Amino acid sequence: xxxTNTLTGIFLIMNMLMLxxxxxxxxxxxxxxxxxxxxxxxxxxxxVIGWSNSASALYNLAQQGGATxxxxxxxxxxxxxxxxxGTDDRLATASNIPQNVTTTATSPYTTSxxxxxxxLSAATNPLYTHSDGTGGTWNVGGNSDGGMLITNRxxxxxxPATNETRLxxxxxxxxxxxxxxxxxxxxxxxxxxxxxxxxARFWVGAEGTSVNQFANADIAEIVIYNxxxxxGRPQIESYLSLKYGITKSGNYIASNGTTNYWNAAxxxxxLNNITGIGKDxxxxxxxKQSMSVNPGQQILIGLTGMANTNASNSGTLADQQxxxxxxxxxxxxxxxxISGIQGINSRFATVWKVQNTASVGTVRVMWPQGLANLKLVxxxxxxxxxxxxxxxxxxxxTQTINGTVYNYADVTLENNQYFTFAAQVxxxxxxxxxxxxxxxxxxxxxxxxxxxxxxxxxxxxxxGGQLQALSGFxxxxxxxTYMNLGSNFNPAVRMVAGAGLGMLNAFSATATASGTGGxxxxxxxAGAGSSPSDGYNVQMNVSGAPLNLSVVSxxxxxxxxxxxxxATTAGLFTWNTSIDRTLxxxxxxxxxxxxxxxYTTGVASAYPYKINGKSDVPATYIPPLFTGRNFHxxxxxxxxxxxxxxxxxxxxxxxxxxxxxxxxxIESYLAVKYxxxxxxxxxxxxxxxxxxxxxxxxxxxxxxxxxxxxxxxxIEGLHQxxxxxxxxxxxxxTISTNSNFINANSSTxxxxxxxxQFYFITGNNGATTAYNAQNIMNRxxxxxxxxxxxxxxxxxxxxxxxxxxxxxxxxxxxxxVNIQLTSGATPGIQIxxxxxxxxxxxxxxxxxxxxxxxxxxxxxGITIQTKQNGWPENIPNGALALESKTRxxxxxxxxxxxxxxxxxxxxxxxTVDKCMKLYNGTSxxxxxxxxxx
Length: 933
Hints:
Shape: elongated
Largest sheet: 9 strands, antiparallel
Number of helices: 3
């Protein structure tokens, strides 16, 4: 029995040795060097002091130089990598690696070499070299300028961007080779002449002992063959690409040479941001979770045992099981309308396609938290998701991976299935497409303490990000502060001159190209608590300016803002070509203003400025190109002194020139929220809601002064519970959802609006607040109410008013309703759509009582009490006496409009206007506490 156990143990050990020996990159044997971050690393704390060769027991790497020259551990796609700091980090073999061959035309030196790395800076230094270590002959090598080398001859792919992760490879000989980038053949053009290969040490992170030749990169894996691998290259690159989340060209082939686990032809149209999981024992590949390393937010997918590292994921796969997905390359934001899913209005433009090999089961699909009601939508055959969808809620499931909170769904992704994400999306005016920046002071600031320093301000657009504090920015040393009550009971962020914020990468990577559209809005008041500063006051800019600009730089193109002539006169500008509207009196900078710019860079046109809904068209000009992707607020981005000084309540930026109809919807949203009237009395502007319905019509063109509203429109996050005009000449009314006329709009002291898309909008005729001979105010308001109405409260600051009066006509003669005021405010009332209202100062009846003796007695009485002697005769001057302690007298309950032949003196209770009405022979009037004569 003991002998059998011994033999069994030997058999298992031999099998393990054979399996280990059989493992090779992509299953392609013959490799001389194989350094990979997930094997053979020796550390001292977080530093790397050794890196073993996984190809053999020879040529292990060790630290070179003093104690400070140690690289550190890092991570690419949840797998370990080695970080070289670009200053003095390097590793090298202790002895030379034989490469003593003659490189002649008949006997060229051959190689197939691969490196996966992440470029960390603009430095373009050697990543690895098999060389003499002093800058002489390189047998093979890779450079962070995108070059790959053989016998001192370089073939350049393309230079990497900072923070780009890539797979560079070269396959061929010293007299002819091809350099590849992520599996794509890039070039066969040699630089330099052929040198003779020789025995030399192998260096990683530097060009040997050369001064200032250190790489600043995370290096994850290096593979070197002394032979060409023309047939094997696709398998090697497949292994490296899946492992490190790299999107490569062509099919993904397993180590057995036959399993095609991502077919480029079958999945045509979905070849972007390819990522996946899989197990391939022949390559020592066991990828349990993965995310594309491409820029921007990417999907995270893996087995359900998700963790901070791939090795820590507790899930399992069998050999040759793979699940890979790729997308259609469209926007990863909920920008496509979708119906039929409760609580959802938009899906991602991005659609992913699945290739599931060997029946991978339940996986976890994850997306960064931040979208409302996030759901995963799957469809077996329809990438438009028109019907037949499987919907899984993600909103309640969260997991934190490496500090990022994700929503997730645990699902089975079948082969050839499509999926996407859907959410309830909010956008100003409901205009979702290409919304890049949406900062509103009632959401996302790091503080809501009055006067607190604002150091960050979250972007409410689906693209995410945040405005951040500047640090060491030339001429911008001040800090923004928070105000709980800006205009119309909504908060603001106060930025004095020199207080700015910036958002990195707010716009897309192509924003600097000519023909990029841009639409911008700000709701602001100049002066930041003081008088506005004369001259250029920059508000917004899209540029390459960082958050810490230390010297004057040319980042001032495409700046937008006000040119202030004096405290009450200002024009607008777009630097540096359209300055012809600076000396025009377009607005009063001391007021709250909705200001807009919309244009297409590099394209000549007359692009209208927008001032509170009005258009001002300058001469034709060519808007300058954006110099970068960063968005700055209240910042002179060249480091100059044309700094703004404003109270900001909302800023909006789109990466396209939106249409006039879309502009109107955005301006309507801002106008209702901030109590700013669009247009003028002479040139009124319609207000529209998010579905395009007109909620304030220019047909009411005699009532275009102090237009305000109470409204709820969920798709734009509008919930205005209290409102008062913020126009230069203020109105005398405040409207609220309850009797609170003081607290901020967001206060829980206000009653919520019950129904979505309810709008109650009113404006006045601009008349005085004096009273006419009938004691009715000359100023009249008109009401446009849309949606399901609810009780509202109206308060006037006019101390003479005793009643609010509304009627069918502005003369207050038809279907008049009088509402008594208490402390200047109505109780909860509903003024129907199309009505007019004003105020009255009615005097109460104070006639002297009739003290004369009764000359008649009441002869008829009805009582439910015990009959008393002498009753009802003891009731003087009556026709009919009614008596009860527990019952009421009910007269006819109807609507005055339903009575076709009213008679003078007729009384009813109007069930719509909620009052006792008297017909005086001409019209119906509610009976009020007055003499009624």
